[in-house]
Design goal:
Structural class: mainly alpha
Number of strands: 0
Subcellular location: Cell membrane
Number of helices: 9
Shape: globular
Largest sheet: none
Organism: Clostridium pasteurianum BC1
Order of helices and strands: HHHHHHHHH
Protein name: Putative threonine efflux protein
Transmembrane segments: 21-43, 49-71, 78-100, 120-143, 155-179, 191-209
Keywords: Cell membrane, Membrane, Transmembrane, Transmembrane helix
Helix content: over 70%
Distance between the termini: 41 Å
């Protein structure tokens, strides 16, 4: 039993190391959750962390089920690219305009984020909209599983380990962000929110203008 447990622990650790690769790419979800922590505090922002982890887990399950061959089709990639860019642009524009009390779309401005459900749902949408995340989990994860020649139990342990860095890394990010709520003035927070909105718009424009295929 001890040997089995040790093997399980090693497989979890392998998954953890692999999952850390994605965390080094600071993207829209990370920026959004830092913003939420600075606006709403640690605990509400943490619900968004679990939203991101939930979607990562879903993508891993899809990878295990062999969905990578479908995602890899050119038309699917283009569709994901357009969808992701639109989501980022809309979220970003809404964030910027809401700082000037202008409502771009009802309910999307930061002033309308009043509880943990809002943050959870928005994080889920942002995570789903990221082609990088989709391609990473369904493509690279599938390849890794095949290379390691894993048993079914090993695959799930590896996948669970790969999700853990999402929770750990983003929790650290919002912990840092929560200090901004305590130490920064309302005007500084407003400027920061405008910057966040502009960054989301930038991510969206960059995504749609990128000519090379998503790999």
């Amino acid at each position: 039993m001890d040997i089995i447990n040790l093997k399980d622990a090693k497989m979890l650790f392998k998954g953890f190391k692999f999952g850390m690769l994605l965390q080094f790419a600071i993207g829209p979800v990370c920026i959004f959750l830092f913003q939420m922590a600075s606006l709403k505090g640690f605990y509400i922002a943490e619900t968004g962390v679990f939203g991101a982890a939930l979607i990562d887990g879903l993508f891993i399950i899809l990878a295990i089920l062999g969905i990578a061959s479908i995602i890899d089709k050119k038309n699917i990639k283009i569709g994901l690219k357009i969808f992701g860019a639109a989501i980022l642009f809309i979220f970003g524009l809404s964030t910027v305009l809401s700082q000037f009390n202008i409502s771009f779309l009802p309910g999307l401005g930061t002033q309308n984020i009043s509880n943990s459900n809002n943050v959870f749902i928005r994080t889920v949408i942002l995570t789903i909209s990221s082609p990088l995340t989709i391609i990473f989990w369904t493509g690279v994860f599938s390849t890794k599983v095949a290379e390691e020649n894993m048993r079914r139990k090993d695959i799930y342990l590896f996948g669970f380990g790969a999700v853990l860095p999402t929770i750990l890394f983003l929790t650290i990010i919002i912990f840092i962000g929560s200090f901004a709520k305590e130490f920064l003035s309302a005007e500084v927070i407003k400027i920061f929110n405008i910057i966040v909105g502009c960054l989301l718009i930038y991510f969206g424009i960059k995504m749609i203008l990128k000519k090379e295929t998503l790999t």
